[in-house]
Amino acid sequence: MRADARAMPLDVTRIAGARSIGELYDALRAGGVLDPDLRFMHVEMDITSRCNIRCVMCYHSFPEFAHSKAVLLPVDTFDRMAAALLPRAHTLTLSLGSEPTTSPYFIPILRKAAAHRVPNLSFFTNATLFNDEMVAAILETGVTEVCVSIDGATAATYESIRRGARFQEVIGNVRRLIHARTARGRREPRVRFDVVMMKRNVHELAAIVELAASLGVDAINFFHMVTYDGLGTESQSLRWHQDLSDLWLGRAVARAAQLRLPIAARPSLFEDDRRAPAAGPESPCAPTPYCMYPFFHVSINSGGHVLPCPFAHGEAPFGTLTPDTPFEAIWFGARFSELRRRILNHDPPDMCRRCSYLASRYPNDPALFAPRDVRVSV
Prior knowledge:
It contains 15 helices and 12 strands. α4 runs parallel beside α5 (106-115) and α9 runs parallel beside α10 (242-259). Helices cover 35% and strands 13% of the residues. It has a 10-stranded mixed beta sheet with strand order 9-8-7-5-4-3-1-10-11-12. Strands 2-6 form a two-stranded antiparallel sheet. It is globular.
């Protein structure tokens, strides 16, 4: 995405009215939103509906998810989807909300994905299930980034959040991957720590930075916790603990700078976010386009349901892929076209007004931290 996108003229009618990937690409490029590169899509998909641990803030802790039958993405189905999507993709991420390494097809799908030569191949993981075979496959298939969820610098904090995981085992698995990479003289896959910030762990943010640097991790990412109705975590949201958030996040940022550890992304500080909403008196959204995700990011769960965006927690899917319903029929259908039109016209729908992505950009807007009613289809 171009850094100067918002300063360029946009043809709202042409962009919102696109009916194919090629038409959308041409319209976005003409408006200066995209660099002149054919690969402009980020495809993010779950290959399973399951997770092997029960994090306190995650919808997988609900019984209806924890005890549901796993929905697996078969290798041949992945291959058909890949053929349609990956020629336009600059990034493929093999996880969306579940743990990809629980799928028996994880390694075969990695190999299929590698054959499409997408420039960036990544996945999110809790890293609890890594073994030598899996690490070897990650290296052999050219995975470019592994994003490991680490929410504590001590076993006590980490294990109280990521229930069912063992801190020392996970750290050992991170070491295993980095050691194997180094032994082969490789710089990839890059290893990134992803940290969900909440009251329970905020005091360890700087220590997590130090842990990452000591292990040889390549980058770190911080983001605010998403609150789900029924999990009892709302009091843990840093929306209610702004001084603590600013104090410890500020220290973590300073420590990362000292250790030269890149921060891939982080929330704005509450004390610095004094910007007035620019899209209307009740809108949290910045000028057009306040969000680019529905224009380039494809989110598909293991059941073939196409979601509005990767931050659409609890939102119903916009369609389901079937042999009779191809991807473009959904992505350029009425619901996606309307969402893009509203984004371009500074008219955010309710989904955007409680968006966790925007919460990190505008942390002083309480509506963006509202609890989600999970209705995720699997």
